Amino acid sequence: HAADAHRTDLMTITRFVLNEQSKYPESRGDFTILLNHIVLGCKFVCSAVNKAGLAKLIGLAGETNVQASSCQMPDMEFASGEEQKKLDVLSNEVFVKALVSSGRTCILVSEEDEEATFVDPSKRGRYCVVFDPLDGSSNIDCGVSIGTIFGIYMMKDNHEPTLDDVLQPGKQMLAAGYCMYGSSCTLVLSTGEGVNGFTLDPSLGEFILTHPDIKIPKKGKIYSVNEGNAKNWDGPTAKYVEKCKFPKDGSSSKSLRYIGSMVADVHRTLLYGGIFLYPADKKSPSGKLRVLYEVFPMSFLMEQAGGQAFTGKQRALDLVPTKIHERSPIFLGSFDDVEDIKALYAAEGKKE
Ligand code: P6P
Fold this sequence. Notes:
Number of strands: 13
Oligomer: single chain
Bound molecules: 6-O-phosphono-alpha-D-fructofuranose
Distance between the termini: 64 Å
Helix content: 25-40%
Radius of gyration: 21 Å
C-alpha cells in the first residue's frame, strides 16, 4: 500500500541529498558529507534548545555541570548559574567544530565571530559556509521558535582561500537552508533544485522528508514587519504598508503577523504566503538583517520556492557584499506581493 510504502520507505535528508548528488557523477559526495555535519550541528542545537529551560532550572537547584544527557560530547556540559554558556555561543562552537571536522570547508563566517575562520590546510575542503548558529536567540526564554540559518558557496578557484571566496553575490550560493527549533525541529533546504522540508524524528534521530517541493503561494494575505519602526520608514515602505491596511482596490486588508524571529517569520511566509519586510529606516539606513547569513539564504529559498526577494534597490541575490557582517534592507515572499513594493520603489526612483 502507498501509505505503508511511505512508512517503510524512509526518505531521510541524507538519502535525499545522495539522490540529488547522484545526478552529478563527478561529485565525490563532498557536499553530502558537508551537509551531514551541518545536520549534526542542528540535532545538537535542537537538543540543547529543548533542554535550555530545564538545564537552567536544574542549574538553579545548585547542581553544577548538568550533562546534556542526550549528546555524548563531554566538553559540551551545561554549567549551572552564571557560567552557563549562552546557547548561541555554545551553538556556534558546535557548528564551527562540526564544519571544520567535516574536512570539506575552507572558510567559515558566523554571526557570532567578528572575523572569518580560515580552516587549517590539513583539514581544508572546497566549501565556504556562512551561518547564524542561533538566530533570534533573544527569544529563547519565552519559548518563541528560533533557528539556524546557513548558506554554502564553493571557493572561487583552487587558490589560497581569501575573503573574496565569501564576499560573493547570493546567486553564487550552491545551497541554503534553515533549521527551526520550535514545536518540532524542521530543516528547510534548497540545493538549487527547489525547496524541501524535513522534520526531525527524535526516536530515529533522523530528519525525514515531510514537505516535498515547497512552493510559496503567488500572493498572500499576510504582511510581516515591525510596525514599531513605522515613524522611521521611507516613502515606498510606508505607502506599501498603508496599502496592506487600507487597500484602495476594495480587496480585503492583509493580516499582520510578526514574531520577531526571522526563521519563524520566514517559515510562515514560505508555507502560507505573504511578505516579510525588514526595511531600511532613518536609524539604520542598511536595515538590520545581515546579508551573508540572513538575507541571502532566505532570499535563495524564496526564489527556489517561486517567490522573490528585493533590497529596495535590486534583486537581493545580485547584491555583492563588501564586508562579512554587512546589513541590507529586505522584502521577501510571494512573487506578486514583492512585485507590488518593487513598483513603489521604482516609482520613487523615477521622481528622484
Ligand atoms: P526587531 C532577531 O534578533 C533578528 O535578528 C531576526 O531574527 C528578526 O527577524 C529581527 O532581528 C527582529 O528585529 O528589530 O523587529 O526586533
